[in-house]
């Protein structure tokens, strides 16, 4: 065999193989590589998007948590204010009730003092009449001397 013919035949076979590879094998491989690259790029874009969404969700959750804390603190402050207001109202009602009870007790004591004075006046008047009766050794008519007794009561 001739080396030139072999070299020529190998060159022709190589060129046919190169043409066949470029025509039928190479396009599906390039297409598969391009699809793979596109999937990788889409995956990276989705990962970046997910990372951005995660950061946004973290910010929203932090903000919501801060708002919840503020709302809770506000409610606690409102509850404390209401509790103080109720306590003050109860205290003022208790003071008013105590003042009313004291006023009633003073009025009752005053009424009893007046009744006791009247009773003492009547007792003193009765004793004075008895004393006068014993001194005079005669009976004094209380009805007849009612004006005198009333004047005596008034002096006492």
TrEMBL record:
The keyword Transmembrane helix applies. It is found in: Cell membrane; Endomembrane system. Its main location: membrane. GO terms for molecular function: proton-transporting ATP synthase activity, rotational mechanism; proton-transporting ATPase activity, rotational mechanism. F-type ATPases have 2 components, F(1) - the catalytic core - and F(0) - the membrane proton channel. F(1) has five subunits: alpha(3), beta(3), gamma(1), delta(1), epsilon(1). F(0) has three main subunits: a(1), b(2) and c(10-14). The alpha and beta chains form an alternating ring which encloses part of the gamma chain. F(1) is attached to F(0) by a central stalk formed by the gamma and epsilon chains, while a peripheral stalk is formed by the delta and b chains. F-type ATPases have 2 components, F(1) - the catalytic core - and F(0) - the membrane proton channel. F(1) has five subunits: alpha(3), beta(3), gamma(1), delta(1), epsilon(1). F(0) has four main subunits: a(1), b(2) and c(10-14). The alpha and beta chains form an alternating ring which encloses part of the gamma chain. F(1) is attached to F(0) by a central stalk formed by the gamma and epsilon chains, while a peripheral stalk is formed by the delta and b chains. It comes from the Bacteria. This is ATP synthase subunit b. InterPro entries: ATP_synth_B-like_membr_sf, ATP_synth_b/b'su_bac/chlpt, ATP_synth_F0_bsu_bac, ATP_synthase_B_chain. Belongs to the ATPase B chain family. It is a single-pass membrane protein. Component of the F(0) channel, it forms part of the peripheral stalk, linking F(1) to F(0). The b'-subunit is a diverged and duplicated form of b found in plants and photosynthetic bacteria.
